[in-house]
């Protein structure tokens, strides 16, 4: 572990980021142009004291999980993230693990979207990052583990996931999930993570097995869906998907499709997340 180099790199990255880039208001009393240490701690989900010790070269070796959180908080590029891991004495994550870290550019877009719900997903349907508006809309799904982290697995194995969509839209949504997963399978032949997921889905769900056998392929680009929200009711949302050039990650942006939905989203923002536990809706994100 190269403590001094790690400390210098983290400090310089923190000072190089403007608050507006990560969705933080640039108040009149701010003297420095970069982020404060407490803001980095908040974004990374760690203590301010630990961030201070890292920047002063006094910390123990950070875990890969903490490094990933710091890379996301500081909006590092793939090369910067790999450099961070090397300085901390860890090998950079393998390809599959890297795909599960939201790209820096997509994270910046999340911040810029502000009150517009948006999520970053892997090509296997794992939610990698959400802005606050998306958490209010769908619940927080970034901390799920095992197969539950995949949207398709929750949809086909957990009735609560389907309950957030009207019955008349459920078959359409199921078909789109399977078609999107088929497209990923074509891009990643023989991938053990994807192969295992498909095998477990086929064993767990007759519906999935039947739809998979139809061999329909389609990468989702745009859609309109209805979300049955437990706090504000029925929401009609337009969904636009931006796909990275290598198609490994997607930015999903949800906007209100009518005036009534717009008003209900405004109400949801006022209500905030108080008494709204993480994962409360399990609303399908795609």
Automatic annotation (TrEMBL):
Pfam families: HTH_31 (PF13560), MLTR_LBD (PF17765). Signal peptide: none annotated. PROSITE patterns: HTH_CROC1. Residues 30-81 form the HTH cro/C1-type domain. CDD domains: HTH_XRE. InterPro entries: Cro/C1-type_HTH (IPR001387), Lambda_DNA-bd_dom_sf (IPR010982), MLTR_LBD (IPR041413). SMART domains: HTH_XRE (SM00530). This is Helix-turn-helix transcriptional regulator.
């Amino acid at each position: 572990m190269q403590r001094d180099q790690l400390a210098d790199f983290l400090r310089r990255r923190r000072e190089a980021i403007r608050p507006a880039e990560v969705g933080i208001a640039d108040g009149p009393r701010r003297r420095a142009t970069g982020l404060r240490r407490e803001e980095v701690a908040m974004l990374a989900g760690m203590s301010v004291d630990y961030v201070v010790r890292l920047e002063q070269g006094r910390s123990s070796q950070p875990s890969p999980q903490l490094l990933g959180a710091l890379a996301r908080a500081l909006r590092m590029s793939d090369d910067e993230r790999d450099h961070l891991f090397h300085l901390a004495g860890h090998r950079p994550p393998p390809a599959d693990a890297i795909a599960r870290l939201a790209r820096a550019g997509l994270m910046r877009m999340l911040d810029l979207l502000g009150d517009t719900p948006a999520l970053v997903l892997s090509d296997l349907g794992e939610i990698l990052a959400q802005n606050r508006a998306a958490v209010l809309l769908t619940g927080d799904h970034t901390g799920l583990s095992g197969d539950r982290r995949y949207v398709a697995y929750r949809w086909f194995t957990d009735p609560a996931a389907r309950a957030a969509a009207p019955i008349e839209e459920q078959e359409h949504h199921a078909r789109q999930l399977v078609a999107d997963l088929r497209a990923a399978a074509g891009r990643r032949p023989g991938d053990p993570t994807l192969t295992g997921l498909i095998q477990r889905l086929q064993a767990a769900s007759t519906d999935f097995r039947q739809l998979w056998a139809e061999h329909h392929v389609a990468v989702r680009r745009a859609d309109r869906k209805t979300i049955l929200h437990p706090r504000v009711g029925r929401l009609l949302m337009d969904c636009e998907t931006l796909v990275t050039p290598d198609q490994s990650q997607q930015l999903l942006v949800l906007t209100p499709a009518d005036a009534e939905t717009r008003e209900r989203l405004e109400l949801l923002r006022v209500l905030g997340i108080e008494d709204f536990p993480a994962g409360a809706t399990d609303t399908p994100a795609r």
